[in-house]
Design goal:
By secondary structure, the chain is mostly beta strands. It is about 10% helix and about 55% strand.
Length: about 110
Amino acid sequence: MVDQFINPASGVRSCACNATHLPAAHPLLTVFSETFAGTFTSSLLGRFTALASNEGLRFRWGVLKGLLEVSDAPTDRLRLEIAGAGRVVGFQSGKADYARSLVIDGITFTRN
């Protein structure tokens, strides 16, 4: 299910969806999987892996694992949930067709 909304404060149009409700062949999921799948490392927080699966984009971070959901598609932001608390993951690609790094809570992870 994909919901689009406009933030009244900023006027920015956003897209939020639950990746578990998108079919594996959904175009948004295909683009996000190709762009964001990979392994990223931070000297402070270790290795973060984003994996494409039949259920959508998944993550593995140490002993933690779960789904990555689209939080804001136009700004390449996904959301993950750890112990009931949501975290936004910002992916940065520069001019590349794939994410070169990601940021979680201000900590940058670089693609291996």
